[in-house]
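Good morning C.,

I know you're traveling, so I'll keep this short. The sequence:
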Amino acid sequence: MADHFEYRHVVGFEETNLVGNVYYVNYLRWQGRCRELFLRTHTPELLADVLADLKLFTLKVDCEFFAEISVFDELSIRMRLAELRQTQLEFTFDFVRIDPGGAERLVARGRQRVAFMRGPNTATVPTPVPEALVRALEPYAPPSRPRTGASS
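The tokens, ready to paste straight into the viewer:
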């Protein structure tokens, strides 16, 4: 089993600028799309919760660029769980260009921190990450590190 959730994407003309390069905001869109497809694939039961009053707030997003991409480039956007806290998650995203021969090149790397909230829009409060999502994310979590210091 892979250590990441993968979303495959082929760059379209509408995602490029006049020079022919992909405009940076698309990387942020693709991070959100990858996250949404993960939820659709692994936790479809969360949709009813989101339609009720569960809210996902993106607190922080960033992306570091290593190489240009352009129209018709094929990408593999690979999402991993970087951190799980009681009411927040942080994901990492590797943007890998897949060349026609199958060679891969890392072209960008991003991060996204998400908080889970409930309540009306004027009075939302933090809520624990849903248990179904915690279970679904287990295969994509970083390897456990041995504890250091005194044992309990």
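Safe travels,
E.
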